[in-house]
Amino acid sequence: MQNEKELYFKYLEKKGLKSTEQRLQILETFLEMPGHFTAFDLHAIIKKRIPQIGISTVFRTLKLLEECGLAKSVKISEEEKSYEYNPTHHHHLVCAECHGAIEFIHPTLERIMDEIPVEYGFIPSDHKVQIFGICENCQKGAKVEKGGARVQENISKVFERDVLRLFIHTEERGIRFYHSHLDCFKEDWSRRLFLALVNEEKHHLELLKRQYQKLVEENDWLEKQPRFFIFDYDEVATAFRRSSANFRKTVAGEEVEMRTLKEAWFMEKENHEFFKNMAEKLDDVGKRLCLEFARDENHHMQVIQLAIDNLERVRSDPEQRAVFLEQLEQEILQLK
Question: What local confidence, expressed as pLDDT, does residue 145 receive?
Fold first, then answer.
């Protein structure tokens, strides 16, 4: 909370405004609010601490919080906005009936939103998507409290669940690739490298599945929640197959061992870039998990690149081969 306060008061100073007790109270209450809420919701809580505070002061302060980046708003009707504090970049589905807002992030949408400004030579600073309609509960006639939304403290759990599902899928794809290419190698060390990568992927997969199971067991409500991180596995697999096919054309003339190593390097590069790009858009648990995965994929790239650089060179030079094998063994030992 201290970082948020510093950001807010620096912004007030920049605007030539005073750091009053009322503004501090509104900020602290705002940061404690769960999920989405209106200015009137916030005002009702603050009045218990400062009975004389007016709704106009709350509106003005929320505007300042939005300007400095601490608050985000969603227009839920012609007259009213819903506010939230959530550092994780995301978009909203807004229900016209109950005024609830469902948060989501979609990698394909993020890619498109990055591509559009480039097409027009535009330098973006931020973007948000709001889709208006009727939520599933209201379609079924269920009674939902006005302004209802997923509780803020639960969003990170939902997001962690979705990211873990993605990581599990990625590890399973990697295991299938390495297993299916083991027979491509004549060199013992090449097979050993791929076996080590298979074993690391299996180790990661086991840890991820345990982490996922622990998460859903500790939060029995979690499996029923709609996805926050919308990830289309088939779409990603198709995109990967397409980019892999294009890459394979560039190495089609090379012998099978070199070609297989380069295809493995390309797969790890695609994974590394995906998780690195996603980490730049996220905060907290999502950023930490994506950066951790990106580091692992980068290490795989480096080990495979070492093999690519030495495949031809060490075949005819026993001395260089011994040096390389020792270096490769050290790299393999660093794989978990």
Answer: 53
Task: Name the pTM for this structure.
Answer: 0.56
Distance of CA 159 to the CA centre of its chain: 8
Outline which parts of the chain fall under CATH 1.20.1260.10. 152-334
Relative to beta strand 130-133, strand 91-95 is parallel
| Spatial separation of the C-alpha atoms in residues 52 and 58, rounded to whole Å | 12
Highest mean pLDDT among 39-48, 271-280, 306-315: 39-48
Q: How far is CA 103 from the centre of its chain?
A: 13
pLDDT at residue 282 is higher than 70: no
Of the options 3.40.50.300, 1.20.1260.10, 1.25.40.530, 1.10.357.20, the CATH number for the domain spanning 152-334: 1.20.1260.10
Task: Say how far apart CA 113 and CA 131 lie, in whole Å.
Answer: 15
Q: Which two tokens stand for residue 42?
A: 């916030």
The Cα diameter of the chain in Å comes to 86
What tokens does 180 get?
A: 């299916």
Under CATH, what is the fold of the domain 1-85?
A: Arc Repressor Mutant, subunit A (1.10.10)
What's the whole-number average pLDDT of the chain?
Answer: 79
Q: Are 2 and 29 in contact (CB under 8 A)?
A: no
Return the sign of the alpha-carbon dihedral for residues 176, 182, 184, 187: positive
Provide the token pair at 120: 């027009």
- What's the CATH fold of domain 87-149? Dna Ligase; domain 1 (3.30.1490)
Contact of 313 with 327, CB cutoff 8 Å: no
Which amino acid makes up residue 235? E
Q: How far apart are CA 286 and CA 19, in angstroms?
A: 33
